[in-house]
Write a structure and sequence with these properties.
5-stranded mixed barrel; 18 helices; about 10% strand; OB fold (Dihydrolipoamide Acetyltransferase, E2P); 2 domains; Serine Threonine Protein Phosphatase 5, Tetratricopeptide repeat
């Protein structure tokens, strides 16, 4: 993306100079023609020697010599422009910005268009060097935002030059507006002015709805606010991914991590985040605007569901529908003590066993059940194998809710331990095993 903006930025300066307008490029030819110059001929010759040098490194050295010898010269304005153009060639963006600032600081000593050109150069310098330490100080970030605002203000006053067609003029203004808003938004973001950054990126989104990088930045600004504007942030990050933003895989990982933190899902239930992320990416492909009522459940919402359904959550799961999905999200990954049920079958494994249990809404319903509606994976408790053959045995267990199936209804538990009191005693040599018992689970 930076290479794209380097080309675009260079093009902006080229366009600004390409219409025969009153610029310093024209004005450079004027000093020698003035009847009463305000500088000496040696002074003028020193400047012209620097101006005509084509090697940017040598040009900067000659300009340094000129400014050192003539620090109050009326030709300084011309020298500053040559400086920032030379530093642009050298890709020394902090120096490019510095001399553009010097040019702007001259105020009324420079004409309107030359001031606009300097503000454009200043914005380009920051955009291209935004990650350099020199641009990361509070003063530089503030100066960048101020310069971008001045550039936008100048655009509002800019009148169409005769050499431009209306179409060329509007396209040029739009290109410069995109540059200034981009720079303001990035600098505001780095300065933690997240509302200011979001405002700039919102405008950019309207100016160019299909530019994924600005949409991504808008999403990040929303997510980093206090409090975060989470749904707006998620939506714009997903839009950027849908538009194949550069660095898509890293942005996918960032979006997923933000969703996980927002939802507050328990370890082992991360697949719930993937479900919500897939749904989100599907939604942005259907509509540019977030549908009314579309939300992703937050950790606070899930906690409220837990408070409302602590004693009835299995019944809520049985009821099915969207409510059941929310209830499962609220409880997935949580450990429950003393869950009861009636044993229907036992499936042995190498290092574990899986119990098939039935649990009804009342003791009588549990007693009458014949088809399992829970799987209980018992690990690290070899004595639980003694439950094999104990059909209809009532037992209690502690386990972690890991999943459920809506049809046929089945709740899945992992990392389970059976209450030792409910495991049959090991039969002594020569004695029959314990008899099957039937009783409601406690």
């Amino acid at each position: 993306m930076k290479r794209t903006f380097w080309v675009a930025g260079t093009l902006l300066l080229t366009l600004l100079l390409g219409y025969g307008l009153t610029t310093f490029a024209d004005a450079h030819q004027q000093p020698a023609q003035q009847a009463q110059p305000k500088y000496t001929m040696p002074e003028y010759n020193a400047y012209v020697a620097a101006k005509n040098e084509t090697n940017p490194q040598i040009k900067v050295k000659l300009l340094d010599d000129f400014v050192a010898k003539y620090p109050s010269s009326d030709l300084l304005a011309y020298a500053y422009r040559d400086y920032y153009l030379a530093y642009s060639q050298l890709r020394d963006f902090p120096k490019m910005a510095s001399y553009a600032d010097k040019m702007v600081a001259l105020g009324d000593k420079v004409d309107f268009f030359s001031r606009l050109e300097a503000l454009t150069a200043r914005a380009q310098a920051f955009y291209l060097g935004q990650n350099l330490p020199a641009f990361q100080t509070p003063d530089q970030l503030q100066a960048t935002q101020t310069g971008a605002k001045e550039g936008l203000g100048a655009l509002e006053k800019w009148q169409k030059p005769e050499q431009m067609t209306p179409e060329q003029f509007e396209q040029q203004k739009k290109s410069l507006s995109i540059l200034f808003h981009s720079v303001h938004g990035i600098a505001a973001m780095q300065a933690k002015d997240l509302k200011g950054a979001a405002a700039s990126f919102e405008i950019l989104h309207k100016l160019d709805p299909k530019e994924p990088l600005n949409i991504y930045r808008l999403g990040r600004a929303y997510l980093q606010m206090e409090p975060p504007q989470s749904m707006e942030g998620f939506w714009h990050l997903a839009q950027a991914i849908g538009l194949k933003v550069q660095g898509e895989q890293q942005i996918r990982a960032y979006l997923r991590s933000q969703l996980a933190r927002y939802m507050g899902v328990s370890p082992g239930c991360e697949s719930l985040v993937d479900v919500q992320m897939t749904k989100l990416l599907d939604e942005v492909m259907k509509s540019e605007d977030r549908p009314v009522g579309y939300v992703i459940p937050s950790g606070e919402q899930l906690q409220k569901i837990r408070e409302e359904t602590s004693a009835t959550f299995i019944n809520e799961l049985k009821a099915g529908g969207d409510r059941a999905k929310l209830v499962f999200m609220a409880y997935c990954g949580l450990e429950f003590p003393e869950v009861g049920g009636k044993l229907i079958a036992v499936e042995p494994g190498n290092d574990s066993i899986t119990l098939k249990l039935f649990l009804g809404t009342t003791p009588e319903e549990t007693e009458a059940g014949t088809v399992a509606n829970m799987t209980v994976k018992v690990e690290g408790q070899p004595e639980a194998k003694r439950l094999a053959g104990q059909k209809d045995w009532a037992l209690r267990f502690t386990g972690t809710l890991s999943g459920y199936d809506a049809e046929p209804f089945m709740v899945h538990w992992t990392k389970c331990k059976v209450n030792p009191e409910d495991i049959p005693e090991e039969a002594a040599p020569g004695k029959a095993p314990a008899k099957t018992r039937k009783r409601p689970p406690r």
